[in-house]
């Protein structure tokens, strides 16, 4: 059978994947017919779509959530803190640091567990070399060399050198605010970043930190100056 003869299977797969995504993201899942818009060549019944969904999920072994460094915060932070529960300040700094790694492409070579281990060491920045070696040795399932390499990369992040305390204080002040996840995947994401820490708080804190940077302030000032000049000449930007 040629590719053209398999067009309907490709379309069925696409619609099934869209349906699965909708069930993960939406609280009110659209009907199967509503997912097949734009004058499709084939229109599939709900039961046919359901069978393809099961096939896709079985192929993926029902692993619908990507593992992130947030999944390992509790483990590595407790190791650093001598098996004690980490403080809210440490958790806030950890989440901010994990989000900061998105800025560096070099972090793509590391596993989520390795990033989380390096994060735990970076947050405990006052540790001596001997203590760091001891901490890394206590971490199971991660390579010491790769973790230390990741630590060195994290030292270059502005979060460690500048805005760590500021962003952590903002996150702590808002730690009592809890946002109810609006979708099933939102519940999973919130659980991944610890049950007592909502994703909205973490992202909001990161946004506050980034907005305080000199470059953004300078761009905002330039934008305001341009607006003022345009207004004087009767134009709007």
UniProtKB/TrEMBL annotation:
InterPro entries the UniProt entry points to: Cyclin, Cyclin-like_sf, Cyclin_C-dom, Cyclin_N
UniProt keyword Cell division, yes or no: yes
Keyword Transit peptide: no
A Pfam match: Cyclin_N
Bias (Basic and acidic residues) ranges: 221-237
GO biological process, any: cell division
Stretches assigned to the Cyclin C-terminal domain: 67-196
Highest rank taxon of the organism: Eukaryota
Swiss-Prot/TrEMBL keywords: Cell cycle, Cell division, Cyclin, Signal
Residue span of region Disordered: 205-237
Signal peptide, first to last residue: 1-24
Protein family per UniProt: Belongs to the cyclin family. Cyclin D subfamily.
Name of the featured protein: Cyclin C-terminal domain-containing protein
Source species: Gossypium tomentosum
């Amino acid at each position: 059978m040629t590719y053209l003869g398999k067009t309907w299977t490709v379309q069925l797969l696409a619609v099934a994947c869209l349906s699965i995504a909708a069930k993960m993201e939406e609280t009110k899942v659209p009907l199967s017919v509503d997912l097949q818009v734009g004058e499709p060549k084939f229109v599939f019944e709900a039961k046919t779509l359901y069978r393809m969904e099961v096939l896709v999920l079985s192929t993926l072994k029902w692993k619908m959530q990507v593992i992130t460094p947030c999944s390992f915060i509790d483990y590595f932070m407790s190791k650093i803190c001598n098996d004690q529960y980490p403080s809210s300040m440490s958790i806030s700094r950890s989440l901010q640091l994990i989000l900061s790694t998105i800025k560096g492409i070099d972090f793509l070579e590391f596993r989520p567990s390795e990033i989380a281990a390096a994060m735990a060491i970076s947050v405990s920045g006052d540790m001596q070399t001997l203590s760091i070696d001891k901490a890394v040795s206590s971490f199971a399932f991660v390579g010491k060399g790769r973790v230390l390499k990741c630590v060195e990369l994290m030292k270059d992040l502005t979060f460690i050198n500048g805005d760590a305390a500021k962003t952590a204080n903002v996150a702590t002040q808002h730690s009592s605010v809890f946002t109810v996840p609006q979708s099933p995947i939102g519940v999973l994401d919130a659980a991944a970043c610890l049950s007592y820490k909502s994703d909205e708080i973490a992202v909001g804190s990161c946004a506050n930190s980034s907005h305080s940077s000199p470059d953004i302030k300078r761009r905002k000032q330039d934008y305001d100056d341009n607006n003022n000049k345009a207004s004087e000449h009767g134009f709007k930007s």
